[in-house]
Design goal:
By secondary structure, the protein is α/β, with parallel strands linked by helices. It has a domain of 318 residues: TIM Barrel. Helices cover 23% and strands 21% of the residues. The chain contains 11 helices and 21 strands. The strands form 4 sheets. The protein has an 8-stranded parallel β-barrel with strand order 3-4-5-6-7-8-9-10, surrounded by 5 helices. A 7-stranded antiparallel sheet has the order 2-13-15-16-21-18-19. The longest helix has 18 residues. It is globular and about 75 Å long. The N terminus is likely disordered.
């Protein structure tokens, strides 16, 4: 199957209803404060998976009382913009793209027919970020002194987790690199007895033992290949255990050598933003013996105003060439999706998320992973979350509109493709990303236009080697990855009509085949 194959428009029902009332966009400020948590997390013993997972806590959440934001429409007069794509310069080679993916989905049998058809084949992700366990793999009632290797692995032996490990094996067979995440350590190791408390320094060795036991189970007992493992998900106080920079370094100093015999490296700091990553990275760059265990510098980003460029400059300025990974990106501006609320604006969420993606790739990220591929239960939020390109089991994993918008973008971001420099002048809510074929297919070019505003009349100029024409694909409120025609270039120049609130892809040819 051809990577990035343009998929036919499919009928929508629930999405259309959602769009009809999409008049308000919710604005949240810090990334961590935009996450919503239940009054009470379930215990590991409480959780069930399969096609009707739970327990689910009902959401009682009042949307922030902010003024309704105007939604741009096709009736507005077109605004002008100019885009110059600098193909005369060498592009920046990238690591690829990927997804966060909940492996407990594998316990729902119908999903086994979905993974390959709707995720692996069309997107061919380079990497998938998965969790060790939805909650810490330890009984909550056991004392800290009683916790140990055998307790953790006995929990992982529970039959309800076996489909999870099978899915990791399935991803291995598809040559998808696995990045392991930890959504919090056993509460017995923290100051308040919960996974989201702060790590007590006297329990650092207990945490390293816990993590090593989990990796041992996956790698030695199950034969799963894990590329890299986070020190902690959002150690800056998000959805994970709080670990300040000094303790973070001490954990990494001990964890790196513990996981190395299993062929597993570290990545991090995996903070909720690049700005929050800087204090951790500053410490890490001063300790090369610890840094030697890392395969990537990683952060999350949920907004277009970020410090990814500064993070990259800090790392490169220290003479370190580790890739910069954005291990989560999405948009927090359209509802409490963590807690099971459907987005208030499907098109808005798609465009905002893709603009975040374009901004981090243009700012120097080497790879970015969307949060997340498919709706499913998250124990830490006691809800079936609603971030997915695909809906969850109750909706037969139906693609959302955002699926088709992402399918116009991510399949071109293959390993060893290049982000091509571009200069854009236009509305603030308009973004562009140019991708060259690199070593995969020299000379190929795709240009993605992400328009959160009204109609735009774009003057396009390819400064350097240029194709003679582009095929044009559109996803908006009316079209799902629709092939709408072609644009011809004369001496590298063309005019492109960009519809209101749309993602438009200009492609010389479809994205690369898997075997290319």
């Amino acid at each position: 199957m051809r990577r990035g194959r343009m998929i036919r428009r499919r009928p929508r029902t629930t999405v259309a209803l959602c769009l009809a009332v999409a008049l308000v966009t919710l604005a949240f400020v810090p990334a961590t404060s935009a996450q919503f948590f239940p009054d009470r997390e379930p215990t590991t013993a409480d959780m069930v998976f399969g096609c009707n997972p739970g327990p689910v806590e009902e959401l009682h959440h009042a949307d922030p009382p902010i003024p309704a934001a105007a939604v741009h429409t096709a009736d507005e007069p077109p605004r002008t913009a100019t885009l110059t794509v600098h193909t005369e310069r060498s592009g920046r080679r990238i690591e690829g793209a990927g997804f966060n993916l909940e492996h407990t989905l594998w316990s729902c049998q119908p999903f086994r027919r979905v993974l390959n058809r709707w995720i692996l084949e069309p997107f061919q992700p380079e990497v998938a970020r998965v969790d060790t366990g939805q909650l810490p793999l330890a009984p909550e009632h056991v004392s800290v002194d009683e916790l140990g290797w055998d307790v953790y692995q006995a929990t992982m032996d529970d039959p309800k987790y076996q489909p999870s490990w099978e899915m990791l094996e399935r991803l291995n067979r598809a040559d998808v690199k696995l990045m392991l995440g930890v959504w919090g350590m056993p509460g017995q190791f923290t100051d308040n007895g919960t996974r989201r408390g702060q790590l007590l320094p006297e329990h650092i060795d207990k945490y390293v033992e816990y993590y090593t036991a989990v990796v041992d189970y996956l790698v030695r007992r199950r034969g799963i290949v894990v590329w890299s493992a986070t020190v902690m998900n959002e150690p800056d106080g998000g959805d994970g255990t709080l670990i300040p920079p000094d303790e973070f370094m001490e954990v990494a100093r001990r964890l790196g050598p513990a996981l190395a015999p299993y062929g597993v490296t570290l990545y991090g700091p995996d903070t909720a933003s690049a700005a929050n990553a800087l204090p951790y990275v500053d410490r890490l760059l001063r300790e090369p013996d610890v840094l030697a265990h890392f395969s990537a510098i990683a952060t999350h980003e949920y907004f277009v105003d970020h410090a990814v460029e500064q993070l990259r400059a800090t790392v490169r300025g220290a003479g370190v060439d580790l890739p910069i990974y954005v291990t989560e990106y999405t948009s927090f501006r359209f509802g409490a999706l963590d807690r099971g609320q459907e987005t208030t604006d499907e098109i808005g969420h798609m465009l905002d998320s893709l603009q975040v993606f374009a901004s981090v790739m243009n700012a120097g990220a080497d790879a970015a992973l969307y949060w997340d591929a498919v709706d499913y239960y998250q124990g830490g939020h006691a809800a079936v979350t609603r971030w997915g390109l695909l809906r969850g089991p109750d909706d037969a994993f139906e693609p959302r509109t955002r699926y088709y918008g992402f399918a116009q973008v991510l399949p071109f971001l293959v390993r060893d493709a290049e982000v091509v420099a571009s200069t854009l002048n236009g509305p603030e809510l308009f973004a562009a990303l140019a991708v060259g074929g690199g070593r995969v297919r020299p000379g190929d070019l795709a240009i993605v236009l992400i328009n959160r505003s009204g109609p735009i009349d774009l003057a396009l100029d390819v400064s350097g080697p240029s194709p003679t024409k582009f095929e044009v694909y559109v996803t908006d409120v009316e079209q799902d990855q629709e092939h709408v025609g072609r644009v011809k270039l004369a001496n590298g120049a063309a005019r492109v009509s960009v519809p209101a609130r749309s993602v438009v892809t200009l492609a010389v040819s479809p994205a690369p085949d898997d075997d290319e």
